[in-house]
Structure formats: C-alpha cells, structure tokens
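Lab channel / #folding
Pinned by the channel admin:
"Please post every new chain as: sequence first, then the structure tokens as a reply. Keep commentary short and put observations after the output so the thread stays searchable."

First post following the new format, from NK:
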Amino acid sequence: MVTRAANAAASHQWTKDPFDDSGPRWREFLRRHTAAFGFGAATLLVIIGWLVRDFGWLNAGTGLGYALGIVSAGCMLVLLLYPLRKKFRFLKFIGPLSKWFRNHMVLGVSAPIAALYHCNFQLGSLNSRIALFSALAVAGSGLVGRFIYSKIHRGLYGRKTTLRELLAGVKVTSPGVGRLGNFVPELTQRMTRFDKEVMVPPKSILDCMRLPLVLFIRTRLHYFQLMRFTRASLAYEARDSAEVAKHQKQLERAVRRHVRNHLYHVRRVAEFTAYDRLFSLWHKLHFPFFVVLLVTVVVHVAVVHLY
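Reply from TO:
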C-alpha cells in the first residue's frame, strides 16, 4: 500500500505541468506584481533624490556620494555576468540563467539610480555627463527589452511562447465552440473574417512598431461592433423563442466573455511576430549601448582620479 501511494505521488510529480501557476494567492500576487513593486520603489527613490538634491547631503568626491559612485560602477561590471553566463556553458557554476536574468534587471535599474545619487542629480563635467546619459540610455533600453520579452515568453522567467500555442488559444476561445454559435450563428463568420484580416505578419520594422497600437484600437472597435450585433441578434431571436427571451442576459454575458477572450488571443497571435522581430532588433542594439556605457565609465573614473 505504501509503495503504491509512493508510486502514485511520484507519477503525479512527473506529470505535473511545469508551468502550472496554481498555489497560494499571496504567492501568485507577488509573482505577478514583483516587477511593478520594484519599478515603483525605483521611481520613488528617483523622486526623493530629485527633491533633496539642493540640501547638499551628497558630494560626488567624498563620503557617501563617492561610495555610491563605486556601487554604480560595480553594478555595471556585474551586469556583464549575465551575457557571459548565456554564452559560456562552463560558467554554470555561478548559478542558473533565470537567477542571473533577474539579477541583470535589478542591477540594470540600481546602477543608474546609484549614479544619479552619486552626482546628486546635477550635471558635472563633460565626461561625467556622457557617463550619466549612457547609464540612463542603457537603463531605458533595458526597460523596453523587458516589456518586449514579456510579450513572447511565459512569464518573466519562463520559456519562449510558440506560435502554435497561441493559435491553440484562439481555437479554444472561438465563440462557435459549444451551443453559443447556435444562438448567434453569424457571429462566428464575422470573427473569422476579422481574424484573417489582422493575423497578417508585418512586413517591416515600422509595421512591427505600430502594429500593437493598431491592434489595440481595432480589436476594441471590433468588440463593440460584435456586441452590438449580438444584442440585436438575441433580441430578434427572443421574439420567436420564449427560451431565448428568458435567458437573453445570460447568453449575452456568455458571448461577451467568449468574444473578449477570443479577441485577446487573436491579438496575441497577431502581435507575436512583430514582438519577436523587435526583440531580435533590440538584442542587436542593447549590447553595443552597454559597451559604450562601460567605456564612458572607465574614462570617467580615469579622468576623475588622474586629473
């Protein structure tokens, strides 16, 4: 009996979906909003530093201000470990890639904030300005990359989503599934026609950049059009069917739920290729920005200590 129970438990362990997010609600809440809390705290630190910049508490050349400059430069050097960990397998001993991806984001925000406090939110010499602006540019580029990354991956540290998975979501949320299509049969035809119109791969980088905004507008306009059509169709059917008249509100809510979910998945499919191409382009631009940042920081440190 014990052996059978142990085998059942082991079988359940190995067949469990590795991407199952079920668990305590507080843990799910933290998982979903950790990044938002982190960026909120970073924004608060920047606002506080800006408000107290005239109090003279920090000096770039001495004390805490000088120490924050060292912290900022150190963070920038540690940032190199993530791309090195991705490229060289022998560095597996320093930790899993997901951990270093998390560290890379945290340090990418911490380094420019420490640099801002180091200079007391004031512009100094030319070399310090270049170093500061380079740090801010790399941080801004990292935030853009993080946003695009979340659009093509399962969660912040998950594997990359595939187009087949997204298309499966479109099929599951189709309003023609079940009995709903019987009450509003033309609805499925209208949605299928819309799907073919929007699920066209973008041709250029410019199309990739504007596609999310265009889809945001088009899917919402189409949603309102479909719901107006649904209400009119159900009202017409209710004239000849007492059963439809009795459950008209429930049917409308069910169609609304299916339409909303379907358009959400259609939008994700239509955006996927665009975000995938943008992420590839971002990857090619972000690392050169980071190299420029390292060079400017080295020059800044050398100039400060030699002259």
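NK: Residues 1-22 have pLDDT under 50 and may be disordered.
TO: also worth noting, The chain has two domains: 32-160+285-306, 163-278.
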